[in-house]
Every structure is written in structure tokens, then in C-alpha cells.
């Protein structure tokens, strides 16, 4: 089979297309014939800055495809099931940038009927991270479903980003009023298509004034991509006992928080890292995302606010570079036949 591997950290040039035997699933594992692999920032950051703990590593946490073989003891999936995968390369060398990957069964989730592989490949990192960010409000729901966030106001920083897009969609499906910040007219249009009720250009508008006019009692949940840049804004616009869910590390910078304004509102600051949210939150995200998929609430593509930027498997290095360069939209790698289930 064709697979992308790297044996040492570094620039996209360390990624090589090679031929390897099709792997055999062990007990509790399944083999997935990958149709679409997706690239997230974590994939290039791991490739560039991580340590390579296996003889060779195939990158990319997220993907979608078809179950092709089952290891002993797997009863939750069947050969031929259309699936999406998450944390495929977490503590394993088995990312999705290859024709077949072998994963623990719990990291392989059935796609609801009618849900495309493109949507499936976009669920892992972005949607599960957004789910966590939206379910840590004191007194708020720890599970999402239609109506779970009725009456709540959610501010999504960076609504044209991959996580921002998923956060808008999940919050909207769950009934929240959704405000988002963007930096251009093009991104504003994408965020509206994702379902944001209100879009604010943080470069050209007085963001705090606009948000406070929309939500005079304050925002309940901030899904925050840049706490370093937005700490003062967040402290200003949140309501009593709100939560600021911070999922990005600002390139390793240090954030400063104004103590008094936050203290007077009992603001909660919640760090979010998908890798370590724990099994309970992980299962909750998988189940709720599946419900949202069944409801048709998580479409992707330009018309849904998340343009798809596609590469063939042989150009995985270029796909990584595109994400590294902050391309707008979701970078996908086409690997297998999308029409056949076998
Ligand atoms: N903790 C976790 O588990 C986790 C999970 C997923 C992603 N992440 C991290 O989160 C970051 C985003 O990931 P992604 O896949 O969503 O990336 P992405 O698709 O590139 O989106 C990032 C978005 O943030 C916007 N942005 C940047 N600075 C902003 C600011 N000050 N205010 C508002 N928006 C701002 C960008 O647009 P403009 O620059 O045009 O505003 C862009 O739309 C990455 O650093 C990634 O590593 C962490």
C-alpha cells in the first residue's frame, strides 16, 4: 500500500511516499481503508517539533474511510462500515495519510447514513475540541443536543477557522445565540454560512462595544483561539460565571489576565487540549457529534462556511505546508475510491 512516513522531525520535506505491506489488525483493533485524510495544525506541529518515537510515523490524526478488517474481540463495527477516525496517530505511528491504517476500535466511529467522507474527516480534532469548549460552563450542559444551549450566548473567536467553524455549527445546533469574530469580509461571509447570528470584524470594528450591544447581559461561553490577543476583550464581554475555553497556545506565548474584572464576574478559564480531555469527555464528544451529524448540522464546503482545499496523497507535504501557512478552510488529502464501500 502507499503510505506517507517520516523518520525524523522537520520541515514538510521529511514526508516521503513509500510502499509498505497492508497491516493486520490485532486484538481490539480494526483496519480502515482510508478514503480521505484531513490535516490539522497539530499534525504539522507534531511533525516539525515532536519526537519520533517509532521507526517511522505516518502523520494525520483525522480521516474517514471504510472498515476493511476486524481484529479479535471487536463487536462494535463490521467490515464495510463507513467510519471517521480520531486521534489516529496519538501514541501510535498509524496516522491517516495512507491507504490503510489500523486503529483501536474506540477511535473508529460509524458515519451516519448519508454523511460524506469529507464531513467525517473533518470531525476529529475540530469538532471534538469545539464540543469540549462548549461543555465546560458552570451550570451549563456537559452534553450537547438540540436545545442544550437555549438562552446562552456563545462568542467564537475566529469563526472562519476549522475549530471556530465547528464551534459555530455545534453552538447553533444546540440553540445558542452565536457571535463570532473574523478579520476580513471573505471570512465574515464564511462565518455567516456556518450559521453565526452576528459577525464582528475584530480588525475594523470596536469588538467589545458590538458584542456588548448584542449581549448586554454578557457572553456565557467564549471559544477562544488567541487568549494572548483577546484576554481583555473576553474579560470585558463575558457575563457572570462565564467560561473562556482556550484551545490554542498562541505559539507558546504567555497570556496576561486582568484579575479584578475577572474576579468580579467569577469568570472561569478552562484550558482545552483534546489529547488529554479524558475518556468521559471523549465519548461524550463522539456521541454528541454523531447526533449532530444525524441532524445534518455539521456540513463542510464553501457553501457551509468551510472551503475544502484538496491534495493527492503524493502531495501530503504540500498539504501540510498549506495548513502551516494558515490557508482558509480545511485541507483534505484524497486517498481512496469514494464511491465503493468495499
Ligand atoms: N487544544 C486543542 O486540542 C486544539 C485543537 C485544535 C486546534 N488547536 C489549535 O488551535 C489553533 C487553531 O486551529 P484551527 O485548526 O482552527 O486553525 P485555522 O483553521 O487556521 O483557524 C484559526 C483561525 O483563528 C483566527 N484568528 C487568529 N487570531 C485571532 C484573533 N486574535 N481573534 C480572532 N480570530 C483569530 C484565524 O483567522 P485570522 O488570523 O484571519 O483572524 C483563523 O481563522 C491552532 O493553533 C491549533 O494548533 C488546538
Could you describe the 3D structure shown?
- The chain folds into two domains: 2-122 and 306-340, Quinone Oxidoreductase, Chain A, domain 1; 129-275, Rossmann fold.
- Helices cover 29% and strands 25% of the residues.
- It has helices spanning 41-49, 117-121, 123-134, 162-173, 185-194, 207-214, 227-237, 259-265, 279-294, 316-324; strands spanning 2-5, 16-19, 29-39, 62-70, 82-85, 100-104, 108-110, 153-157, 177-182, 198-201, 219-224, 238-246, 268-271, 308-312, 330-334.
- The longest helix has 16 residues, at 279-294.
- The radius of gyration is 20 Å and the shape is globular.
- The chain starts with a strand and ends in an 8-residue tail after the last strand.
- The mean pLDDT is 97.
- NADP nicotinamide-adenine-dinucleotide phosphate binds at residues 40-42, 125-126, 129, 157-158, 160-164, 181, 183, 187, 202, 225-226, 229-230, 247-248, 272-274, 326.
CATH T-level fold name of the largest domain: Quinone Oxidoreductase, Chain A, domain 1
Shape: globular
Q: Can you tell me the CATH superfamily of the largest domain?
A: Medium-chain alcohol dehydrogenases, catalytic domain
Strand content: 15-25%
The rounded distance between the terminal residues' Cα atoms is: 16 Å
Strands, count = 15
Mean pLDDT: 97
How many domain modules?
2
Structural class: alpha/beta
Top CATH class of the largest domain: Alpha Beta
User: What integer value in Å does the Rg equal?
Assistant: 20 Å
Low-confidence stretches: none
Could you give the order of the helices and strands?
A: EEEHEEEEHHEHEHEHEHEHEHEHE
Largest sheet: 7 strands, mixed
Share of residues in helices: 25-40%
Summed up, the helix count is: 10
The CATH architecture of the largest domain comes to Alpha-Beta Complex
Bound ligands:
NADP nicotinamide-adenine-dinucleotide phosphate
